[in-house]
Write a structure and sequence with these properties.
Blueprint lengths: L7 E5 L4 H18 L2 E5 L13 H4 E2 L15 E2 L11 H4 L7 H8 L12 E4 L18 H4 L3 H11 L2 E2 L1 H14 L4 E6 L8 H14 L4 E6 L2 H10 L3 E2 L21 H15 L4 E4 L4 H9 L7 E3 L7 H16 L2 H12 L6
């Protein structure tokens, strides 16, 4: 559909990179289906140190021109954004700390509705709920009706959201210098949200039993997880980046020396995971899920230890357990003690 020059979709960045990327993919698809011009705004403080829009530092897209300009209009939905289009979602929450459900309800459009009359719509999401748009997959979009959601998102990552060349060069340089054998990529998020670590280790052990010469590429946000893997497995490599105190999510840690560089380091991890011959991840983590979407590896070489990971009830339960463990500082002492109590390589 040809975009109406007076209609826009403004996609705001919020939380971590995996969520943001999925939100952008959803925004690209929504803008195409609704005939709107796409504007992506990542000037929020999670990854921008100076208040500039860092999206174009990281990606390019044929559907989003490299501009920071946000159209000026009073025809805005949701109306809470009127006069505040340059703000980010945290600012609109005021003194209240909005949870994801409240943000969707109060700060974002209904993703399944296309016929808004307003000139500018604002999207704040933590996923790409493609299934809500399936009723509109006809005409020029008929091809999508025959594809799975995973297939649609993977195709968009290949064609519609491309890593900037200077970051791609860093990915290729690390791969050519450090990937010296067939490689299994392992993603372990273990900070504000914790994946199924033992399930990941069990899958890794089973794979290494079948292919003992595999090299391990580890991407994690927890320095103690990195130390535990290096102390228990041979051939572990990780891309260099800054780590927060164990248990603290990198993208909100105020001690980061450079917010934008920390995002670039995470993107390098993400695309290196996708360059591995095998991938072990927890699908409840959006970062691991995006790595799976990016990876061209055969389906049987990609092992999701939690294929029901998008179950919201399970995610809330695991998040509650995570808060308890963070309070006990398990990320600091637990990984120093764990290898002494459990034979990790035989787990």
């Amino acid at each position: 559909m040809t975009a109406n020059p007076d209609k826009f979709l403004l996609v705001k960045g919020d939380t971590g990179l995996g969520d943001r990327i999925l939100c952008v993919l959803g925004g690209i698809l929504y803008a195409q289906l609704s005939g709107r011009n796409l504007v992506i705004d990542w000037r929020d403080p999670f990854y921008s140190s100076t208040g500039d829009n860092v999206f174009h530092r990281f990606f390019e897209s044929p559907f989003c021109p490299p501009t920071d300009h946000i159209p000026t209009t009073n025809s805005v939905y949701p109306r809470i954004w009127q006069g505040r289009l340059a703000d980010h979602a945290i600012q609109l929450g005021g003194e209240r700390e909005l949870n994801p459900q409240e943000i969707r309800r109060e700060l974002s459009i209904d993703f399944g509705k296309l016929d808004y009359p307003e000139d500018l719509l604002v999207l704040v999401e933590y996923d790409a709920p493609v299934d809500l748009l399936r009723p509109y997959f006809h005409g020029a979009f008929q091809e999508l009706a025959q594809m799975t959601t995973e297939g649609i998102l993977a195709k968009m990552l290949r064609e519609d959201l491309l890593l900037q060349s200077e970051i791609r060069t860093r990915v290729d340089h690390f791969k050519s210098n450090r990937f010296y054998a067939r490689t299994v990529g392992v993603h372990v998020r273990y900070s504000d949200y914790r994946v199924r670590l033992f399930a990941i280790i069990k899958q890794l052990n089973a794979l290494l039993k079948r292919e003992p010469d595999l090299q391990i590429f580890l991407a994690t946000d927890n320095i103690e997880v990195k130390k535990m893997f290096e102390g228990n497995f041979r051939g572990v490599v990780s891309a260099p980046h800054w780590y927060a105190e164990p248990g603290s999510p990198i993208h909100v840690d105020r001690t980061r020396p450079d917010r934008t560089e920390s995002a670039i380091e995470a993107l390098i991890d993400l695309y290196l995971l996708a360059n591995c011959d095998h991938l072990i991840f927890d699908g409840s983590s959006s970062f691991g899920w995006v790595a799976n979407l990016l990876s061209p590896a055969a389906a049987h070489n990609k092992l999701d230890v939690d294929p029901s990971g998008h179950n919201r009830k399970k995610r809330r339960l695991r998040a509650a357990v995570t808060r308890i463990l963070r309070g006990a500082r398990f990320s600091s002492w637990g990984f120093r003690l764990l290898p002494k109590l459990v034979q990790i390589r035989r787990l």
